[in-house]
Amino acid sequence: MKSVLFFSTVLVFIIGIIGCQQQSSKMNSSNSEKVVNVTIVRFDQQAELNVSDEVRKVNTILHAIKQAKKHPGIVNMEKPEYKIKIDNETYFLWVDENSASIMNLNDNHSLYTLTESSAKELKEIIEEISSV
Questions:
Q1: How many CB atoms lie within 10 A of CB 54?
Q2: Dihedral-angle region of residue 73 (phi above 0 means left; psi in -120 to 50 means alpha; beta otherwise)
Q3: How many whole angstroms separate alpha carbon 132 and alpha carbon 21?
Q4: Per-residue pLDDT at 16
Q5: CATH code that applies to domain 38-130
Q6: In this structure, how many other beta carbons lie within 10 angstroms of the beta carbon of residue 26?
Q7: CA neighbor of 121 nearest in space, from 90, 98, 92, 104
Q8: How far, in Å, CA of 82 to CA of 105, rounded?
Q9: DSSP letter at 78?
Q10: CA separation (Å) from 40 to 26, 37, 52, 76?
Q11: Comparing C-alpha atoms, which of 71, 34, 36, 62 is closest to residue 50?
Q12: Which parts of the sequence belong to the YhfM-like domain (predicted)?
């Protein structure tokens, strides 16, 4: 009788653990699958390039913007080459050979400089999607 009670308790415990793990993995997968809409507009060609379905490119763009260094103060820049729309945020983008700068349209008094590696990665993405 004691062994039946012991095995019943162990079985209930195992079922509880399995249920918690499945619920946890469902929560993790729903959080990591958040859709981010990213569109790049090239002003001189009036071309709109959507990269939302390319996870690696979206993550690279988001990382580049997150790692950018802020330069406060009013800036006087030439016309931007690109506009990047990320969900409800819009940025102007200037790209050179080894550097890039962005400006959030909601904060047009600050310019952000991307790291050299992020600038190169962003330039590669733009060249990739421009050739398609």
A1: 15
A2: left
A3: 42
A4: 53
A5: 3.30.1490.410
A6: 10
A7: 98
A8: 12
A9: P
A10: 32, 10, 10, 22
A11: 36
A12: 33-129
Specify whether the CB–CB gap between 108 and 94 falls below 8 A. Answer: no
Instruction: Output the six-digit token pair for 125.
Output: 């993405």
> Are 130 and 124 within 8 A, CB to CB?
no
| Alpha helices in the chain, H assignment, sequence order | 2-32, 55-67, 116-130
Q: Which residues pair with 50 in a beta bridge?
A: 39
Q: Are 80 and 43 in contact (CB under 8 A)?
A: yes
Is 118 in contact with 100 (CB distance < 8 Å)? yes
Q: How far apart are CA 57 and CA 48, in angstroms?
A: 15
Hey, what amino acid is at 74?
A: I
| Cα torsion angle, 102, 105, 106, 108, sign | positive
pLDDT values of the chain reduced to their tens digit, one per residue, 132 residues = 656 555 556 544 566 566 555 443 333 344 445 668 888 888 887 677 788 788 888 999 999 999 999 987 777 788 899 999 998 899 999 998 789 999 999 887 889 999 999 999 999 988 887 775
Model pTM score: 0.67
Tokens describing residue 59: 């993550």
